């Protein structure tokens, strides 16, 4: 192994349900407005326009039980999502071959600095400060597709302090899982270790310090944390 002039960054590793081995993360891709009702609540068009993608950083993902409220923001929103982890990749992947690239699935939250995002949108600036901040993407343990298959339907929900805030179903995805992978591979060369956050249903809203957040996806898993 080649020596480095500074200590090499640690690989981000995600827990895998029922296994000692962990999943190494390469890149994190996110799909914007992939549920019609969420597109509407965000002022978008719910029609089947081409999907758009943005990225978080690999080290934004973590298995922690707390979410540290970020500085320089006063409006941070929860967005529960199905997380897809890839065991293989490629470019221009065919829709019919896309699910063969999937290792497994998890439940994740795409926490978003909504106030910073709104400013960025108005000024036509990138979203990184709103999306790719520290600890912005807590995830549950990955469940291998070999155990649960590839979910096409199932309740997606999120509660804050015991009150239901988000509720939807995977069958409401505008762009389905094979299509997401295929479309993404037209823009980027996908590889083992890539993670895709697939979009969130309606009901996104703010969290504050002390909130108890619980969420889940039927047939995939659950995730609980405290905002600190």
What does it look like?
With 228 residues, the protein is α+β, with helices and mostly antiparallel strands. It is built from five helices and 18 strands. The strands form five sheets. Strands 4-3-15-8-9-12 form a six-stranded mixed β-sheet. A hairpin with an 8-residue loop joins strand 1 (13-14) and strand 2 (23-24). The radius of gyration is 17 Å and the shape is globular.
Explain the layout of strands and helices:
Elements: E1 13-14, E2 23-24, E3 28-32, H1 36-41, E4 52-56, E5 61-62, E6 66-67, E7 76-78, E8 80-86, E9 102-109, E10 112-113, H2 114-122, H3 128-131, E11 137-138, E12 143-144, H4 145-148, E13 155-160, E14 163-169, H5 177-187, E15 195-197, E16 205-207, E17 212-217, E18 221-227
Parallel strand pairs: 3-15, 5-11, 6-18
Antiparallel strand pairs: 1-2, 3-4, 7-10, 7-16, 8-9, 8-15, 9-12, 13-14, 13-17, 17-18
């Amino acid at each position: 192994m080649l020596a480095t002039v500074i200590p090499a960054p640690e690989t981000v590793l995600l827990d895998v349900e029922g296994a000692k081995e962990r999943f190494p993360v390469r890149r994190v891709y996110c799909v914007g407005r992939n549920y019609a009702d969420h597109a509407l609540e965000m002022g978008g068009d719910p029609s089947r326009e081409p999907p758009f993608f943005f990225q978080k950083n690999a080290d934004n993902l973590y298995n922690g039980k707390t979410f540290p409220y970020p500085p320089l923001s006063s409006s941070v929103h929860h967005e529960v999502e199905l997380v897809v982890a890839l065991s293989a990749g490629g470019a221009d992947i065919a829709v019919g071959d896309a699910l063969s690239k999937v290792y497994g699935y998890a439940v994740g939250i795409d926490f978003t600095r909504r106030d910073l995002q709104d400013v960025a949108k108005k000024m036509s600036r990138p979203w990184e400060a709103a999306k790719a901040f520290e600890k912005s993407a807590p995830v549950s343990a990955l469940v291998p597709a070999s155990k649960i298959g590839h979910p096409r339907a199932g309740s997606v929900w999120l509660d804050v302090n015991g009150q239901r805030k988000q509720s939807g179903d995977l069958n409401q995805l505008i762009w389905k899982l094979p299509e997401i992978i295929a479309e993404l591979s037209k823009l980027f060369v996908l590889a083992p270790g890539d993670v895709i956050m697939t979009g969130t249903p309606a009901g996104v809203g703010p969290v504050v310090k002390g909130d108890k957040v619980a969420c889940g996806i039927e047939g995939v898993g659950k995730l609980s944390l405290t905002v600190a």
